[in-house]
Every structure is written in structure tokens, then in C-alpha cells.
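Run log, item B.
One chain of 198 residues. Sequence copied directly from the ordering sheet:
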Amino acid sequence: MNEVIGYARVSTREQNPQSQEAELRAAGATRVYVDRGESSRISERPQWVACLDHLRGGDTLVIRALDRVAGTERMAIETIRDLGQRGVRLKSLSEPFLDVDTSTPMGEAIVGIMTVMAQLRVSTIRENTMRGLAHARSQGRVGGRPTVMNEARIEAAVKLREEGKTLVQIAEVLGVGKSSVARALTNNADERVRNIEQ
């Protein structure tokens, strides 16, 4: 027998999910899974995982809004597509366009359109970022956060590396992140190669 299953989420444990639960039950949910204090950007939320395990083909998943289950556009697209492939209907109470059977040709078309739009937005953001960085460089500015690896730390990192220390060990000694050490050592090596070639 097909079921209507609800999923609710609140960002902090202090928030009360009762209003969400009431809305989902009013929409026909016979069971509601609730995550408290969990970020929508994390896919491995305990009750979300349990909800997905419970859902079967032919069931309907009802949510208040898409941001309850997905914190990014990519996650949203993947969630809609995965549910559709499993034959689970997705219904959002605040987004009527999501009340579609994603396992049908029309549902697949809607997912396809959403995928294209999400990719276009990502590409546009990337293009604008690159254009902004290029303009900043032309003005003598460099984008991004300032590095924690000053000359003294880079010299120390090089020496420690030559002594056989790992990136983790070097990072602990210098009090910085491992990625900062790795990036600094790579940039330093590239600079030395360029100097030799000149």
C-alpha cells in the first residue's frame, strides 16, 4: 500500500518543528520524520536517511519546502532525480511546481529544465567571479583571503619538509592548516623552477 510520508527539519534544537509536522499531517502524511539542529547542506542527517530508507516506489514524500531537504541547488536536483528514479512522488507545500510525478516523462522534463537552470546559474557565478578576479589583478589587487603563510613560515616549512616532516606535522608546528602548508610549498617549488629556467 502506497504511503504519504512527511519530512520536517529545523536548523537548531531550540526551534519547534510542530507547525511543520502539523502542516505535513494535514497534507496527508501518516508518518513524519523530523531532524532537529541539522544543516540542510549535510545529506547524512539521521532522520532524512531513515526517511529515504522507508520510502518505496509509489509513495509520496511531502515537505514544507525544498530547502528542508536540500541546502544547495545541486543537492535539490540530485534529490528530485533520485526520488524520481525510485518512483517516489515529491510534493512541496510551498512550491506547487514540485507537485509532480518525477518518474513520468513530464516529471523528467521538469527535472531536466531545473538541472539546466542550476548549471547555468553555477556557470554564471563562476564566470562573474573570474571576470572580477581578472579585473582586480589588472588593478594590482589579488582576490581571495590573505594567506597565513608569510615568508618566515614558508622558510620554516621548507626546512621542516627537507627534514622529512609530514604536512600535518609542519602544520602543527606552525599553527596553520595543512592545506596552507601544502599550497605554500607548491608555490615555493614553482617559484624556484621559474627562477632556474630564467
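Observations after the first pass:
- The CA atoms of residues 65 and 87 lie 20 Å apart.
- The chain has two domains: 4-116, 151-193.
Flagged for discussion on Thursday.
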